[in-house]
User: Which sequence fits this backbone?
């Protein structure tokens, strides 16, 4: 379980999530990501799930919380690298309606 | 009641660090039925939600025990029971509604929705102060 922050470009940062995201690990990830969101002042926060080996609905809570933090800083959130099943879980929460999921029809240019 | 071919009983403390172990242990036991990668993921995800509910809801301010039973049947069905002696659910119907949660914070309210989506049958039995039993049924290999 881990989080690595990469600066993609001045306008966006990527939080690369790895390992399992459950209620236990989400607690650790949340603080680390929030700290970097507020410090970076990036316009776009990308949460990259391609290294995630497992997630349950705690990941939905993690994304929702980061969306709120980013919104309060005037930034937006994008989700990247979601597997089919993980995308399905995010969609159960209707997240595809408020957050851009890369690789979906709702992806904005 | 049909007798299972094989049975696992385990008891763990309701600590979040045990969530991963519960998934792994039940996943390993169910592997005897030769599930696909997808079926195994389904089961582990459903188990993760049920165990998390015990930790976050049933034993909110304290630690208790989670009692897990897994029964494997000759028709390739796995029946997983996750039981606690915690606070119990006041309104089961409401609790099973997508996005409904009695807690704020970062709880998504999707626990039961995910369990239902990834299982063939989900039963919830509970009463305030009387604990909760969640029964997850999954047919492996498309057989019934």
Assistant:
């Amino acid at each position: 379980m881990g989080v690595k922050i990469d600066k993609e470009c001045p306008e966006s940062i990527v939080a690369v999530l790895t390992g399992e995201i459950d209620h236990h690990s989400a607690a650790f990830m949340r603080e680390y990501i929030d700290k970097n969101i507020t410090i970076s002042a990036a316009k776009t926060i990308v949460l990259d799930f391609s290294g995630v080996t497992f997630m349950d609905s705690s990941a939905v809570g993690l994304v929702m919380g980061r969306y709120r933090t980013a919104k309060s800083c005037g930034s937006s959130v994008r989700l990247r690298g979601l597997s089919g099943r993980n995308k399905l879980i995010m969609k159960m929460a209707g997240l595809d309606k408020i957050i851009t999921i890369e690789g979906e029809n709702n992806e904005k240019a | 009641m049909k007798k299972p071919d094989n049975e696992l009983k385990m008891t763990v403390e309701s600590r979040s660090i045990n969530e991963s172990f519960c998934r792994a242990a039940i996943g390993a036991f169910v592997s005897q039925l030769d599930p696909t990668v997808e079926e195994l993921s389904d089961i582990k995800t459903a188990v993760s939600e049920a165990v998390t509910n015990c930790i976050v809801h049933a034993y909110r301010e304290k630690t208790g025990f989670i009692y897990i039973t897994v029964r494997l049947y000759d028709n390739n069905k796995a029946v997983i029971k996750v039981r606690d002696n915690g606070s119990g659910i006041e309104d089961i119907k409401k609790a099973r509604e997508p996005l409904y949660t009695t807690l704020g914070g970062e709880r998504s309210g999707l626990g039961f929705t995910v369990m239902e989506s990834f299982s063939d049958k989900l039963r919830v039995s509970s009463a305030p102060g009387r604990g909760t039993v969640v029964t997850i049924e999954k047919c492996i290999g498309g057989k019934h």
Remarks:
- The longest strand of chain A covers residues 44-55.
- Chain A touches chain B at residues 20, 22-24, 26-27, 30, 54, 56-58, 60-62, 64-65, 85, 88-89, 92-94 (CB under 8 Å).
- The mean pLDDT of chain A is 89.
- The longest helix of chain A spans residues 23-40.
